[in-house]
Amino acid sequence: MRSLPVFLTVAGRPVILTGAGEAADAKRRLLERAGAIVVGEEDGQARIAIVSDGDATTVARLRARGILVNATDQPDLCDFTLPAIVDREPVLIAIGTAGASAGLAKALRQRLEAMLPARLGVLADALFAARAAIRAHWPDAGDRRRAIDAGLMPGGLIDPLREGAADAVPVWLCEAGARVDGRLVPIRLLSGDPEDLTLRAARLLGEADRVYHAADVPAVILDRARADAVRIAADAPPQQSGDGLSLWLSLG
């Protein structure tokens, strides 16, 4: 991973924009859409800037002031890049290529735009509104996360790609069990290359609470698991795997 993806709140804050023409106009529209106050290079309060013409001299002046800079079409001069965006407010999906190809990011955005329901943001709002009820239903954080994962999985009552998922949140709360039983799923990897992961294996890695693995399973595979999933090196599958979903990974 070459950079850390973040969502930066710029509403009501000054952001420097330099340059002119179509590129500058597009960046201005994006900044204003996010609620930023667009200012010139002379502003002393701004901490980020977009140099729409990619001028290296302007970039150097701004960087000397400790300002983080995006330089259009100049990835080597960028402190941050601007991704292609799929907007399902409050859900935002950002697609970046570290400046390698804006065209590729755009193509992926168009695919996702066609795939994701327009009411995806409504589902997010419904889950936010139900936070108190969800916490009351599943006081234990682990049980709560597993129940939400089960509801959101393909075919689940609140599957994000399912029509009417937002309206199903109350039904899901009523029908979902109070506790998700533990299970251990063995996965025999085809190789140590994450590109060889099956869709099922990739999905399970994204859901697992803990990952038991043989010593020869490489870190690039383990990195595909949830960041907060426990990784446990072992010589054999565990006899007791604990609550929720556990995986046993082995090669060959």
Reconstruct the topology from this structure:
Blueprint: E1 14-18, H1 22-33, E2 37-39, E3 48-51, H2 56-64, E4 68-71, E5 84-88, E6 91-95, H3 102-115, H4 120-129, H5 131-137, H6 141-152, H7 169-175, E7 183-189, H8 199-207, E8 210-213, H9 219-222, E9 230-233, E10 245-251
Parallel strand pairs: 1-2, 1-3, 3-4, 7-10, 8-9, 8-10
Antiparallel strand pairs: 5-6
Please provide a written account of the structure:
By secondary structure, the protein is of the alpha/beta class. The chain folds into 4 domains: 1-82, Rossmann fold, CATH 3.40.50; 84-115, 2-Layer Sandwich (Double Stranded RNA Binding Domain); 120-175, no CATH class; 183-251, Tetrapyrrole methylase, N-terminal domain (Cobalt-precorrin-4 Transmethylase, domain 1). Helices cover 33% and strands 19% of the residues. The chain is built from 9 helices and 10 strands. The strands form 3 sheets. A 4-stranded parallel β-sheet has the order 2-1-3-4, with helices on both faces. Strands 7-10-8-9 form a 4-stranded parallel β-sheet, with helices on one face. A two-stranded antiparallel ribbon has the order 5-6. The longest helix is centred in the middle third of the chain and has 14 residues, at 102-115.
Envelope shape: globular
Q: Quickly give the structural class.
A: alpha/beta
Query: Which class of the largest domain in CATH terms?
Result: Alpha Beta
Order of helices and strands: EHEEHEEEHHHHHEHEHEE
Radius of gyration, Cα only, in angstroms?
23 Å
* Widest β-sheet, arrangement of strands: 2-1-3-4
CATH superfamily of the largest domain: NAD(P)-binding Rossmann-like Domain
Structural domain count:
4
**CATH topology assignment of the largest domain:** Rossmann fold
Which second-level CATH architecture of the largest domain applies? 3-Layer(aba) Sandwich
